[in-house]
Amino acid sequence: MKTQKKGLNTICTHVGEIEDTLFKGAVSPLFMSTSYAFEDVEIKRYPRYFNTPNQVALSQKIAALEHAEAAMIFGSGMAAISTALLSFLQAGDHVVLQQMLYGGTYHLITEQFEKFGIEYTFIDGSDPAAFADAIKPTTRVVYIETPSNPLLTITDIKAFAEIAREHGIVSMIDNTFASPVNQNPIDFGIDVVIHSATKYMGGHSDILAGAVACSAEHMERIFNLAKNLGGSLSDYTVWLLERSIKTMGIRVRAQNENAGKLAEWLSQHPDISHVYYPGLKDHPDHEIAKRQMHGFGGMMSFELREQIDASLFQKSLKLIKSSMSLAGVESTVLSPTQTSHALLTAEEREKQGIRDGLIRFSVGIEEVEDLKEDIEQAILAVRKKGVAAPSH
Ligand SMILES: *Cc1c(COP(=O)(O)O)cnc(C)c1O
């Protein structure tokens, strides 16, 4: 099926589907074989070569969604990130990354890169000029994440990609928080787009997967390492992910809408001191977000005023769950101070702008009035301290 002129939901539903020629079923058949007859081709079909029928079909869908020539599906977001980075880096090379990164990516760099002889520099903030200043003759890759976790900072994708172009180095972005529904970085000149498909692509908190989308030339390099590292995904999960992506457009757009309404409402709330959401006019990078995003996403953070205890607040929520993961159809919250940033000292957290009252909110598809009511009753319950908080 030609992909070029199709709209988002049509791509989500149809691109890459495998025709069931045997029984004329409505959905792609699932091929679980790990063994295929030799064809007269260079590379045989094998799951770890990322070329089973279901892998190839879903890759076409993801490539179409990201306006890329090629895509590949991995066993996790971290498998996609580590494989993509290491495909373009070797001993003696240097990489420049944004400091505000997903924790797993930060740990991959700080715990593993030294032993591979790969040098790295983290950039505080998201100013493109700071990236340019950090580039050395040995720099091969620059890497960003926007919107970022947990403060939803925005990096100017076009300005960043241009700097990489000028220096002839590979630009990469973790596009997980936006999803392909809200942001297509290749349109702004980014080379390699990475997703934790565990999040919006899966969307139901029941699939662990990753994806990379880029040019055919860059993909050849990534594939050559990927087949050695072996981070492919089971075809059964590939098939489930195809099914999930069919509704990604309508899910994410519903999440955008809910998040927009909640961000406005929370920013008027007397017990909330600040809301971090790129869709709000007072977000410092709202104008950049407007230029590069189709929608502002379902992720936000907000700060409870001092008198509202964050952990008691979370325990008092009845509908919204406390959960580490994000981007499911169900709304979830977490406290960065108690989870992702727990190992930092209070001083380090303060420096990064992570306060004790900060709540990261992954907005789901529930009715927005029910979400407001849940937050309101939780705040009331905390105010009337002594009322036993229900536990999940
Ligand atoms: C979850 C996440 C990852 C890691 O993905 P896994 O599927 O858990 O390996 C990477 N980047 C971002 C922004 C994430 O939210």
From TrEMBL:
It holds the Pfam family Cys_Met_Meta_PP. Keywords: Aminotransferase, Pyridoxal phosphate, Transferase. InterPro entries: Cys/Met-Metab_PyrdxlP-dep_enz, Cys_met_metab_PP, PyrdxlP-dep_Trfase, PyrdxlP-dep_Trfase_major, PyrdxlP-dep_Trfase_small. One of its GO terms (biological process) is methionine biosynthetic process. GO terms for molecular function: cystathionine gamma-lyase activity; pyridoxal phosphate binding; transaminase activity. SUPFAM superfamilies: PLP-dependent transferases (SSF53383). GO terms for cellular component: cytoplasm. Its cofactor is pyridoxal 5'-phosphate. The keyword Cell membrane does not apply. The modification N6-(pyridoxal phosphate)lysine is found at K199. Belongs to the trans-sulfuration enzymes family. This is Aminotransferase class V-fold PLP-dependent enzyme.
